[in-house]
Write a structure and sequence with these properties.
The complex is a heterodimer. In chain A, 72% of the residues lie in helices and 0% in strands. Chain A is mostly helical. Chain A has one domain. In chain A, helix 3 packs across helix 5. The longest helix of chain A has 28 residues, at 78-105. Chain A is elongated. By secondary structure, chain B is mainly alpha-helical. Chain B has two domains: 2-88, no CATH class; 98-146, no CATH class. Chain B has helices at residues 2-23, 27-36, 48-51, 56-63, 69-88, 98-107, 113-118, 121-129, 131-134, 136-146. In chain B, helix 6 (98-107) packs antiparallel against helix 10 (136-146). Chain B is elongated, with a radius of gyration of 22 Å. Chain B starts with a helix and ends in a 16-residue tail after the last helix. Classes of the chains: A mainly alpha, B mainly alpha. Chain A binds chain B through residues 31-32, 35, 46-49, 68-70, 72-74, and chain B through 55-57, 67-69, 71-73, 75-76, 95, 97, 100, 104, 117.
């Protein structure tokens, strides 16, 4: 195996680890972890305007902890975004998994 | 003459009362609305500025009981209504900056974004569809904003000017 494919292998390992660890960390953190504190959204900081995505992080955080009422409170669009994001997340994981398998067999 | 003076005095008195009610959203009003919405009475006791920011989790911490879905919907609706009323009274929410308007008109003015920001959505849509009125309207708007002739909608002033 050449060093380049070795590097790619590690890169895929890192990505797969991220796909798994990030949801686990978010699940371990308390549901209201992002509820307090200063916003880092550019739309809020620069223009003092809330856009349609405002509160999506907080809403998704409550949604993955099965707190549907709170998720609705922060952003109702979380109910649309969550399935799409979950599908995309699974897709990213599956693509890396397939590529890793290909490298390992070659 | 005497009658006129009394009338003038009465007029001033009524104006001062209405100005007071417009400037302060009273806590009694809030408590009534909270009760009417079927929310726990305890959160009706807090100040209006605290109430519009409170989340269901914080309500749980204060009252010790978890809000049902129906109550969360009521809370969100009530906060939205109060925020809108406060913005209408000029107490909060209309913090439009002239600098931000200028930045918007320079970079995304062709799409009419500055008009959306200043509260003219219809003109904003027209500018969006006509690519800033073929660029001419955009240029006019740029000068109007820079010289301070184009102000936020409904006769409001900029919170900070250049």
């Amino acid at each position: 195996m050449n060093p380049r494919s070795n590097l790619r292998k590690y890169w895929h390992y890192v990505r797969i680890t991220l796909w798994i660890i990030v949801p686990v960390i978010l699940l371990v953190l308390p549901a209201d972890f992002f509820d307090q504190g200063q916003s880092i959204c550019l739309s809020i900081l620069l223009l003092n305007q809330e856009c349609y995505a405002c509160g999506l992080t907080r809403a998704l955080m409550h949604l993955i902890h099965f707190e549907f009422a709170e998720a609705y409170y922060f952003n109702i669009l979380a109910f649309i975004v969550f399935p799409l994001l979950a599908y995309q997340w699974a897709l990213w994981f599956w693509e890396d998994w397939k590529k890793l398998k290909l490298i390992r067999t070659s | 003459m005497k009658n006129l003076l009394i009338l003038a005095f009465l007029g001033m008195f009524i104006t001062s009362i209405s100005a007071n009610t417009a400037a302060h959203y009273s806590s009694a009003q809030l408590a009534l609305k909270v009760k009417a919405s079927g929310l726990p009475a305890q959160i009706g006791q807090m100040s209006v500025s605290d109430f519009v920011e409170i989340t269901p989790s914080q309500v749980k911490q204060i009252t010790g009981q978890r809000l049902h879905f129906k109550e969360v919907v009521a809370l969100k609706a009530l906060q939205h209504t109060i925020k809108k009323e406060l913005a209408k009274d000029g107490q909060s929410g209309n913090g439009k900056d002239q600098l931000v308007a200028i930045i918007l008109v320079i970079f995304v003015g062709v799409l009419g974004v500055h008009r959306f920001y200043l509260g003219y959505p219809l003109i904003g849509v027209i500018q969006l569809l006509t690519i800033g009125g073929c660029g001419i309207w955009w240029l006019i708007d740029f000068f109007l904003i820079v010289f301070g002739s184009l102000k936020p909608s409904r006769g409001r002033e900029y919170e900070s000017t250049l």
